[in-house]
Design brief:
Blueprint lengths: L3 E4 L6 E2 L1 H14 L18 H8 L7 H18 L5 E2 L3 H10 L3 E9 H11 L7 E5 L10 H10 L6 E5 L2 H10 L2 E5 L6 H6 L4 E3 L10
């Protein structure tokens, strides 16, 4: 029986791609680099914001100096605009409420930087209690390193077979393998179903309500 459900954030709980794309494009423009269509950002995100900027920068310009310059402009814009277009995926608020009512512990494990992770959860899910909301933090490896999942499991004081981890990308599925927990890939996020299948998760679901059947 599952007692703890850990969710990825971007592409799993929230569709944040437009705000991420808009802020990155703003930062690229400020630094005089070419911008990208929003659809391209589905494959830029997922490994933390520095990797996002590296992928968005032109070939030959992916230097640490340029990444830091784009990051500086991005943070100013995203912190002011990260709720402009972002929205929960269909039935996600209802799913979280039902899981909470059933007495399950809930947590978030994201590669988005910590302050933005906390702000978005507080903004979109103010009535849901999460035992941990963990984003990218300095000196802590990002997913697929299992350290963030291990930290949440320690907080929850549960066994690994009592954990369900829900995410939308290959990074998330790798994380479940590394952490030795049950993995659920969702098809409504940023990455195609084929990417999920490549990592052979325990389950792949097409609707939020399908997760209830796995508890």
């Amino acid at each position: 029986m599952k007692r703890l459900v850990i969710f990825d954030l971007d592409g799993t709980l929230l569709n944040t791609i437009a705000d991420l794309a808009n802020s990155t494009n703003y930062a690229l423009k400020q630094c005089r680099f070419p911008q990208h269509d929003v659809s391209e950002y589905n494959f830029f995100v997922g490994n933390g914001i520095n990797k996002l900027f590296e992928r968005a920068l032109p070939e030959g310009e992916k230097t640490e100096e340029n990444i830091l310059s784009v990051r500086k402009e991005f943070l100013k814009h995203y912190d002011a605009h990260n709720t402009d277009f972002s929205t929960p995926y269909p039935d996600i608020p209802e799913l979280l409420r039902e899981l909470q009512q059933r007495g399950l512990m809930l947590a978030v494990a994201s590669n988005k930087y910590q302050s933005a992770t906390q702000r978005l959860i507080a903004h979109y899910f103010p009535n849901i209690h999460f035992i941990a909301i963990l984003g990218q933090r300095e000196s802590i490896p990002v997913k697929p390193d299992p350290i963030v999942v291990n930290e949440i499991i320690s907080i929850a004081k549960v066994n690994r077979d009592e954990v369900l981890y829900v995410g939308d990308s290959g990074v998330d599925m790798q994380t479940t393998k590394n952490a030795k927990v049950t993995g659920v890939g969702v098809t409504w996020g940023f990455r195609p179903r084929q990417e999920l299948e490549k990592f052979q998760p325990d389950y792949i679901v097409d609707n939020a309500e399908d997760i209830l059947k796995l508890i």
